[in-house]
Amino acid sequence: MNVVVLTKWVPEPEGTPTIGDDGLLVRDGADGALDPGDEYGLEAALQLVETAGEGEVTLISMGPEVAHAALQRGLAMGAHKGVRITDDGLRGADALVTAKVLAAAIQMQEFDLVIGGVESTDGYTGTVPAAIAELLGIPSLTFARGFHVSDDTITIERQTAAGYDSVISPLPAVVTVTSGATEPRYPSLKGVMAAKSKPVETLAVSDLGLSAEDVAATQTVTSVSDAPPKQGGAVVEFDETTPARIADLLAEAKVI
Amino acid sequence: MTKVWVWADVTPDGPAPSALELLTKARDLGDDVAAVALGPGAKDAASALGEHGASTVFASDDEVFANHLAQPPTAALAGLVEEHAPDLILFPSSYEARDVAGRLQIRTGSTLMANATDVLDAEHARTEILGGTKIVDVELKGPSPKLVLVRPQSFAPEPSGGTADVVEVLADVPNELKTAERMERHEEAASGPRLESAKVVVAGGRGLGGPDAFAQLDQLAAAIGNAAVGASRAAVDAGWVPYSYQIGQTGKTVKPEVYVCAGISGALQHMVGMKGAKRIVAITKDPDAPILQIADLGVVGDLFQVVPALTEEIEKRRTGS
Ligand SMILES: Cc1cc2nc3c(=O)[nH]c(=O)nc-3n(C[C@H](O)[C@H](O)[C@H](O)COP(=O)(O)OP(=O)(O)OC[C@H]3O[C@@H](n4cnc5c(N)ncnc54)[C@H](O)[C@@H]3O)c2cc1C
Ligand SMILES: Nc1ncnc2c1ncn2[C@@H]1O[C@H](COP(=O)(O)O)[C@@H](O)[C@H]1O
To answer: Predicted ipTM?
Structure first.
């Protein structure tokens, strides 16, 4: 069982990211990490390969040089190797470009399954994995909150607004895993040490057989402005008058 | 002439509210508005879609579109796009629509923008980032149709009183596209009003400390009446309540008359789902919690004291004692 895991490096996953003059997120020099949303899928991949008893987990990440940190984290968790696509021509890459680049890199691997996050923490487009599946000509199963692989099929519990659907598909396929679907392991010290000697391949756009035109972004930010601030109201410490005060607000809104 | 299409999610129960919202907007953007509705319920939905501005509804009731994920509807939509060349397609932010839009983008080579909160014309859309504190305008370039995924409840649906011609879409989907198959649908039991349409939403977060405390929110909701209970992702990920409770970026968008939350800090991803509420009451222990900045009434205190006291106060007023 060979699994490719899409692992994105994101700036400031816990803090507030900075917007540059060009309206894009500042990535250079920002503190960043492996997207927490990708750790659930990585954990799923590690479990599947461990259960199969053979095969490899390959991480693929498109991002600036600092994205190396995301791969190191994934390798420390137990992935076998990594591929990083870094190229000045990818600055400001949109969903289409990202999908083309990642799909081209996936095609250079052996894989039964591609796993990604439901949406990235910084971009939250949520369409990149399905677009990759279309490029690869394989099924996509998004929003998996549970999964089971047997022989050459995968069954997932697909989250829906009302509950979940059971969905079955032949492999190879692209699957996206929701937060909470697995409990990502914490890298051990041994894992961190081992990660340093695991292979990481660095590729440019031209190595993928893509041209500068193929990766030209098709949207530009024309303006970034401050939204009119929402006026907060009163903040009070709880005391015996508070319940009446909240109830008054509800009565004013004519809901009680 | 600007052709604007809307991807209409439909079920045998009718069109999704998003379809009517998007059609209402599409009327402002184009002079030729059509909807695409695929799967059981599509043709029955056509009258509501027409009433909200679609002059044509491309429809098929074929089960293949509901039984298989993404690939069959993408193939059908791509065929229609090739034939009719729309300038812009508006999609809701639903699970199905995201997959179809992502795949269609590859077939048409066109640009795609997600999370739009407004569409200015066939080439410009708007989004909000950082929890709605910044507004970003984006120009969409490259080949048509431009694809825009719009956040729920961005527009209020208004009927235009029109009627639509129904054009049958052929469901001649090749077998190799009938892959990922839905075997079963499981609905988690829900009681009371739907989150999206309730007048009052009572939501709980990590501060509840466990599943049992949600019973206190249920009691508060029952005392208010016409109130639905929701949650932050922290409470959902912890397994305290099902995902169908989740409010925010990856969950539901709610715009109630009053939003009452307890034990929620107000992360950016939570606030995008509830900041449209008319009034916000926030109960938290932390005087620095970001949620207090947008609350009309912020209460700093222990929710295990505040919530029962509030429930009691409302019940007291109701019985007039
Ligand atoms: C891509 C992405 C998508 C996301 N989508 C969503 C989404 O859709 N919805 C969502 O909600 N989040 C989402 N998140 C997660 C979000 O970033 C936060 O982690 C989450 O909202 C935090 O939930 P919380 O406020 O319940 O928990 P916390 O941030 O831990 O806040 C708990 C609050 O409870 C207070 N508290 C504790 N005990 C008590 C008590 N006894 N009485 C009163 N107050 C108490 C604390 O002081 C604190 O303010 C997303 C994150 C990412 C990266
Ligand atoms: N630059 C990237 N490198 C690696 N994986 C990515 C990248 N962008 C997106 N992905 C994957 O696609 C998922 C959805 O991303 P998005 O569509 O950008 O919200 C993420 O959770 C990742 O798994």
So the answer is: 0.92
